[in-house]
Amino acid sequence: NCEYILIHVVESTNALMYGKESGDLETDEDKNKLENYCKQIQDIGYFCSIQLGYGSAAKSIATIVNETGCNLVVMAPHGHKGLKDLLFGTVLDKVRHGIKLPFIIA
Q1: For the stretch 14-37, what's the b/e string if a residue is b when 16 or more beta carbons lie within 10 angstroms of its beta carbon?
Q2: Which of the four pLDDT bands, split at 50, 70 and 90, describes residue 40?
Q3: Which of 17, 24, 41, 92 is most buried, by CB atoms within 10 Å?
Q4: CB-based contacts of 65-71 (< 8 A; 24+ apart in sequence)
Q5: Could you tell me whether strands 103-105 and 3-10 are parallel, antiparallel, or unpaired per DSSP bridges?
C-alpha cells in the first residue's frame, strides 16, 4: 500500500532563476523521463507519483520529502568525487541533514 515518489531536481540556469516557471527544454525532458519511469512502476501495480524540484538539489529534495510526508528516503550517489565533494559536501550528506526520517543509500 505504499506510494513511490520519484524526485528529480532541475539545475539548469533557467530553473535556478525562474523555478517552476522556467519552461526550458531540460525541464520538459526531465519531467517526461520521470513520467515514463512512474508509468512503468504503475504498470506493474504500484502507486507512483513524481515531483520536480528546481535549483539546489539538496534543498529541493529535503523540502519535497518534508512536505510530502514520506516515511523513507532511498537515494543513490550521483558519482561526483574528489575535491568538490570535500569542499562543498555531497547532496546525500546535505539531504540527510535536512530530513528527519530513515535514509537508505542504494
Answers
A1: bbeeeeeebeeeebeebeeebeee
A2: very high
A3: 92
A4: 65/7, 65/95, 65/98, 65/99, 65/101, 66/98, 66/99, 68/5, 70/5, 70/101, 71/2, 71/101, 71/102
A5: unpaired
* pLDDT(86) > 80: no
pLDDT at 96: 83
pTM: 0.81
Strand 3-10 and strand 47-54: the pairing is parallel
- The overall average pLDDT reported for the chain is 85
